[in-house]
Structures are given as structure tokens and as C-alpha cells.
């Protein structure tokens, strides 16, 4: 039988690594499972990060994540680059199975599995992430000053991204597959009244074009006529939704209607004692590295207090 750990963390993004740092410094010897193929989380898919405090000249996303990991390891956090494929979180001792079938036991579990941006599924989309293709106006809008940009999507997030981007961009074209938007009326009105924003309805991106490793335009297709046309843009923001990585926890933890883990805000306590959740797997609203790191710290402190009270 494996030893019973004080804290096991699932997820290697800013939330997981910060939870590891805090619980390691609290002498809880955390064990973190950080995925077999996606170690370091979402920021490893981008280039420059300019809004994480402490880096006046910006920092490369993968470098920031390696530093977070090294800082947690320095205080004794143990990292395993593997997936947790099954959990039983309902008992006093939590059971977590890795991909080799080994069952790990823990008194507390911190869930920091993040959420994935939905993708268009087009060639070059991933390769040009951080090179003209983005999923986050708050993160990347600043890099697109005086550029012509496309926002794909028709919901509130797409309208919010489009409106936010008008602060930087020369023009923003919202591309939506249908003839009407899904966004709330107030968000639609705001976008319609902005003279930098125009709309391409009944349209989708047929092709992403690249020159010298950077986005160099897109081909738009009219979904009704199948006619195509080139659009000369250097920014493509994809705002078609997110999927929290909570498949593992269904049926055990309370999730909201969109599948995010529900916590007793402002704490990180979930519906099960001894189980805490942090970062984008909880957060519909902010979805930033700094907010994920902040709730990761809170989860470690919540776990520490739970362990102290448990005795
Ligand atoms: P994530 O970073 O998503 O990490 C979760 C990790 O958990 C992943 O590695 C995942 O594989 C792993 N995992 C999931 N399930 C399991 C499992 N069963 N077993 C083991 N591991 C598992 N934010 C900013 O503040 N500034 C920016 O400039 C910025 N730029 C961005 C650019 C891009 C392209 C993207 C995609 C996001 C960007 N963000 C930015 C947002 C930021 O990356 C996220 O808000 C943040 O990473 C969320 O952290 P997290 O720890 O909650 O989850």
C-alpha cells in the first residue's frame, strides 16, 4: 500500500504549482500530478506574458512555468508528469489512480486541472498560437495595437473580447456562423454601437494563412453560399467557449451547469470535505494566470487548515 500523503495536487498550471509551493513551505510534502503530455498548463502554449507581476520586461510563458515548478520543488514538492485517470474522493482517505494503475492515497486533494479553450480545429491554429492567433483579449490585446483583427464567436465572451480589442485594434470583424448573435442584448448593443466593430454573419474561417511563422490573414467562407473571400488580418481571436477539465469528477463533486467545480466562495472548498479546487477549473470569469495562482495559494491554505482541524 502507498503511504498516505497529506496533499495530492492534480494539475501543473499556475494554480497547481502555486498550491504545491505553499503546501511544500507548510511542510506538507505535496505530490503533484502534472499530466503526461501537457506539463506546465496553458501558459506553455504562448510566448510572451506581460501581465504576470514581477516581470517588468515580460516573461516567456514556458519559462514562467518552469520557474514556478522549480520554486515549488526547491521546498520539497514532488512532481510526477503523469495523468490521474480515476479518483474516489468520497471517503476520508482519497484514492487517485495514475495511468500505470498505481493507486495513491491522500488526506486532501487540490484539483487544479484548468479548462481548455475550444478550438476551430483548423490547420496552423495551434502552431500560430501567440503568433497572431489568441484566445484571450485581456492577455494579448496589447500586442495588437493598430492591427486589423477578427473575433470568432457570437456569445457574450466574443462580444466582450471584440469590445475590449477596440481599445487597441484599428478594426475588429466579428465572424459568426449564424445570422443572429447568442450574446445578451446589452452586450450586442454595445458591440453594434462601436464604430470599430463590423460583423460577418453566416460566415466561418475556412483557412488560416501564415507567412514567416506569423498569421498572415484568413479565408472566410459564407456558410449559405460556400463563397470564399480573403480577409487581410494579422490577429485572430477565437471566442467560442471553454471546457473545464472535470470529466474525472462527475458524479462525485458538485459541478455547475457548465461543468465547472463549485466552491464555497471565497474559500476553495468543494462539496466534499478535504477536496479543494483552484484556477480555471472553477473560474468562469477571470481566467488569468495570476488569479489561478492566487486561488492555488488559497487552496493550499484551506487544505492546511483542514488538516490541522482534522488532527
Ligand atoms: P492550466 O494552466 O490549464 O493547467 C492545468 C494543468 O492540469 C494542465 O497542464 C493539464 O494538462 C493538467 N491536468 C488536467 N487534468 C489532469 C489530470 N487528470 N491529471 C494530471 N494533470 C491534469 N493568462 C495570463 O494571465 N496572461 C497571459 O498572457 C495569458 N496568455 C494565455 C495564452 C494562451 C494561448 C492561453 C491558452 C492562455 C493564456 N492565459 C494567460 C490564461 C492562463 O494560461 C490560464 O488562466 C491559466 O494557465 C490557468 O491556470 P490553471 O492552473 O487553472 O490551469
TrEMBL record:
Summarize the subunit comment. Homodimer.
Instruction: Name the coiled-coil region(s).
Output: none
Q: Which NCBIfam families match?
A: TRX_reduct
Entry's cofactor comment: Binds 1 FAD per subunit.
Give the reaction(s) catalysed: [thioredoxin]-dithiol + NADP(+) = [thioredoxin]-disulfide + NADPH + H(+)
Task: Write out the similarity annotation.
Answer: Belongs to the class-II pyridine nucleotide-disulfide oxidoreductase family.
The record's keywords, sorted A to Z, are: Disulfide bond, FAD, Flavoprotein, NADP, Oxidoreductase, Redox-active center
Which PANTHER family does the entry mention? THIOREDOXIN REDUCTASE 1-RELATED-RELATED
Q: Gene3D superfamilies in the record, alphabetically?
A: FAD/NAD(P)-binding domain (3.50.50.60)
Enzyme Commission number(s) of this protein? 1.8.1.9
Q: Which Pfam families match?
A: Pyr_redox_2
Q: Which cofactor does it need?
A: FAD
Name the UniProt record assigns to this protein: Thioredoxin reductase
Where does this protein come from, organism-wise? Answer: Streptomyces similanensis
Enzyme class comes to oxidoreductase
List, alphabetically, the InterPro entries matched: FAD/NAD-bd_sf, FAD/NAD-binding_dom, Ferredoxin-NADP_redctase_2, Pyr_nucl-diS_OxRdtase_2_AS, Thioredox_Rdtase
**Residues of the FAD/NAD(P)-binding domain:** 6-296
Amino acid at each position: 500500500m502507498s503511504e498516505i500523503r497529506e496533499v495530492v495536487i492534480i494539475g501543473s498550471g499556475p494554480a497547481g504549482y502555486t498550491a504545491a509551493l505553499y503546501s511544500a513551505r507548510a511542510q506538507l510534502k505535496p505530490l503533484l500530478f502534472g499530466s503526461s503530455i501537457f506539463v506546465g498548463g496553458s501558459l506553455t502554449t504562448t510566448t510572451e506574458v506581460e501581465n504576470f507581476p514581477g516581470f517588468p520586461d515580460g516573461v516567456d510563458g514556458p519559462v514562467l512555468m518552469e520557474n514556478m515548478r522549480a520554486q515549488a520543488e526547491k521546498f520539497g514538492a514532488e512532481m510526477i508528469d503523469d495523468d490521474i485517470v480515476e479518483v474516489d474522493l468520497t471517503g476520508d482517505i482519497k484514492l487517485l489512480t495514475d495511468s500505470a494503475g498505481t493507486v495513491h492515497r491522500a488526506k486532501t486533494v487540490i484539483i487544479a486541472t484548468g479548462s481548455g479553450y475550444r478550438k476551430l480545429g483548423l490547420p496552423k491554429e495551434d502552431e500560430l498560437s501567440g503568433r497572431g492567433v489568441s484566445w484571450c483579449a485581456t492577455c494579448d490585446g496589447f500586442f495588437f495595437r493598430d492591427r486589423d483583427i477578427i473575433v470568432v464567436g457570437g456569445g457574450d465572451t466574443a462580444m466582450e473580447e471584440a469590445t475590449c480589442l477596440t481599445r487597441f485594434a484599428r478594426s475588429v470583424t466579428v465572424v459568426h456562423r449564424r445570422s443572429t448573435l447568442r450574446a445578451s442584448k446589452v452586450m450586442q448593443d454595445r458591440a453594434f454601437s462601436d464604430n470599430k466593430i463590423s460583423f460577418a454573419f453566416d460566415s466561418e474561417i475556412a483557412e488560416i494563412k501564415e507567412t514567416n511563422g506569423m498569421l498572415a490573414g484568413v479565408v472566410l467562407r459564407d456558410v449559405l453560399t460556400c463563397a470564399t473571400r480573403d480577409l487581410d488580418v494579422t490577429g485572430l481571436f477565437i471566442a467560442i467557449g471553454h471546457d473545464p477539465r472535470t470529466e474525472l469528477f462527475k458524479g462525485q463533486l458538485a459541478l455547475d451547469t457548465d461543468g465547472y467545480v463549485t466552491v464555497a466562495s471565497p474559500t476553495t472548498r468543494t462539496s466534499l470535505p478535504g477536496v479543494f479546487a483552484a484556477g480555471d477549473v472553477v473560474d468562469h470569469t477571470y481566467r488569468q494566470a495570476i488569479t489561478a495562482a492566487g486561488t492555488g495559494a488559497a487552496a493550499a491554505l484551506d487544505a492546511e487548515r483542514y488538516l490541522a482541524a482534522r488532527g
